[in-house]
Amino acid sequence: MTSDIVGTRRPALMPRQAMHRRRRRIASSRARTVSRCQERKEHPLAMPRFFDDQQYAIIQAACARLIPTDDDPGATEAGVVDYIDGLLGAFASDPPLIWAGGPFSGRFGGEPRFSNFHRLSRHDELAWRTRIEGSRGIEERERLGPVIGWQEHYRAGILALGADFCDVSPEEQDRRLRANESFVDLLYEHACEGMYGAPEYLGNRDHLGWRYIGFPGDVQPRGYPDDEVSEP
Prior knowledge:
Number of helices: 10
Largest sheet: none
Distance between the termini: 31 Å
Helix content: 40-55%
Strand content: under 5%
């Protein structure tokens, strides 16, 4: 879905079933789900950028069904909803939260510069605004025809899930998610990015996603020692 975007902002995704089959707990309690809807842990860069409080709660609850908490942390603990909010509201910052700086994050040495986001070229900004915001009848965004942006997909998806999504049973939440497959495909893609991407993009809080899959994160300028490279 994102292969034609200028740049390489996002990590490659793993199949949904392979990644999260063992973690899906359909029978989780309703009280636990409601409490996640009410919880909001702020990232230092969170504003919020795009969602209002109700939209934020609905997306947080939906992500908790896609990457649930069981014996390991899930989407809620990793702040996945903050990543999605930051992505949809990327242009609320100047420079926008599109391309993190570098060359090093500081996690394994070097000056920490990932949080210094790059300014976009005119063409890059056009491409990203079109993908996120849609064409909105703007001529230069519609050279290949009208584009429905991610923001509009989320507005429609949240409306379809219902204002009472946080209050219904987990089984009903899953039914509504299954009934909105195209939106859930987009949501799941973004949820995985927020779970396993660099934390400078507002997700993967406390490196929870990386720790879960045994990934040390970016290791430059240290690099990988011989014993790590030689492991099967």
